[in-house]
Amino acid sequence: MIEFSRRQLPHYDIKGCTYFVTACLAGSIPAVGMHAIRRQAETVRRRPRPAATSTASWRSQLDWEAFQAGEDWLDSRSVVRWLRDRRLAAVLKAEILREQGVRYDVHAYVVMPSHMHLVFTPLVCKPLVCTPLSEMSGQRPREDDAIGGTRSPRVAIMRSIKGRSAVACNRLLGREGPFWQSESYDRVVRNEEEMEKVVHYVEMNPVKAGLCSSSEEWPFSSAHRA
C-alpha cells in the first residue's frame, strides 16, 4: 500500500520500505540558491528519455540529478552551518540512534554542517499518533500539526528526531525559533542496487565536501571507525 501526500514536496509512504531522507537546517539555502536549484532541476527534467531506458528508471535518474544540485549548495555554499559545532552534531547523532532497533533500522546516516542524511526502515507498519513538531521545537503550529493526528511511521520518526534535536540544539545555541527546514526530502529505496548507491553517497558525503579524507574519519557517520 502506498500513501501519497503533497505540500511543497511530494512524499510517498510504502509499508515495509526503506527511505533515504535528507533534512536541512532552516535557512541553509538562501532564496537565490533555491531559485538556481529549481532552474537546474527543470533543465534536467526537460532532457528526452533515451529509448533504451524505462520511464521509471529515467524519472529516478532525473530525480537523483536534481537532488544532487541541492546537495552542491548544502555542501559548499550553505549560509547556516550550526551542525559544524561538534556538540550539536553529537546531539543529532544520539537522536538518530536513540530508537535504532526499536522503531526503525538505520542502514546509514551522516551529520553534515548544514544538513543530515538518513537511510532507515521503519519497524512499525501502522500510522502512529505523532506529537506535533511545533510542540517539540517551539515552532509555530502548521495546519498539518493537528494534536492527536495520525502520521505514517516515516513522518513520526523524522518528527521525533528533528523535534528533540531542535530543542537540545537551540538550548546549546541560546536561541529560539525554527532549527530545521519544515520539509525534508525523502526517496523510497527500491532495490539492492539503489540501496548500495545511497549508502555509499551518504557515507562519502563528508569526503565529497572536503571535511575529511576518508569516510571512516568522520565521527558523525555510520561509516566511522573509532
CATH topology of the domain at 2-28 and 78-125 and 179-217: Alpha-Beta Plaits
Structural class: alpha+beta
Return the CATH class of the domain at 2-28 and 78-125 and 179-217: Alpha Beta
Tell me what the CATH architecture of the domain at 2-28 and 78-125 and 179-217 is: 2-Layer Sandwich
CATH superfamily of the domain at 2-28 and 78-125 and 179-217: Transposase IS200-like
Distance between the termini: 41 Å
Helix-strand pattern: EEEHHHEEEHEHEH
Helical content, roughly? Answer: 40-55%
Please state how the strands of the largest beta sheet are arranged side by side. 4-5-3-8
Rounded mean pLDDT score: 81
Largest sheet: 4 strands, antiparallel
With helices defined by DSSP (H or I, 4 residues minimum), what is the helix count? 6
How many beta strands in the DSSP annotation? 8
- Gross geometry: globular
Rg over C-alpha atoms, rounded to the nearest angstrom? 17 Å
Low-confidence stretches: 1-11, 125-149
What percent strand? Answer: 15-25%
Topology:
Elements: E1 2-6, E2 10-14, E3 18-24, H1 31-45, H2 55-76, H3 86-97, E4 104-111, E5 115-122, E6 128-129, H4 133-137, E7 150-151, H5 153-173, E8 185-189, H6 192-208
Antiparallel strand pairs: 1-2, 3-5, 3-8, 4-5, 6-7
Helix pairs in contact: 1-2, 3-5
Q: Can you tell me about this structure?
A:
Helices cover 41% and strands 19% of the residues. The protein has 226 residues and is α+β, with helices and mostly antiparallel strands. Strands 4-5-3-8 form a four-stranded antiparallel β-sheet, with helices on both faces. Strand 1 (2-6) and strand 2 form a beta hairpin. Helix 1 (31-45) packs antiparallel against helix 2 (55-76) and helix 3 (86-97) runs antiparallel to helix 5. The protein is globular, with a radius of gyration of 17 Å. Mean pLDDT is 81; it is low at 1-11 and 125-149.
